[in-house]
Specification:
mainly alpha; two-stranded antiparallel ribbon; 2 helices
Length: 74
């Protein structure tokens, strides 16, 4: 049980470090190309708006937590 808990904590620490060092990850919808996969018309991906990168979920949670803390301590 302790080994499993340690493994989970190490995985979470690794993901937190990844979010701190590289807050943006490739878009999952377009696989980082910025374009929709259509045969004839070329369209820009709606999720990333053609930027190819999106903010990671962990970084979004961190930013929301910081905003809540900042608003609560004013």
């Amino acid at each position: 049980m302790a080994l499993a808990s340690l493994a989970v904590l190490l995985i979470l620490a690794g993901y937190a470090a990844l979010c701190a060092l590289s807050p943006f990850g490739p878009c999952r919808k377009c696989a980082g190309t910025g374009l929709k996969k259509l045969t004839k018309p070329v369209k820009v991906c709606r999720r990333c708006r053609g930027d190819r990168y999106r903010l990671r979920v962990g970084r979004r949670l961190l930013n929301t937590g910081r905003a809540v803390h900042r608003d609560g301590t004013r």
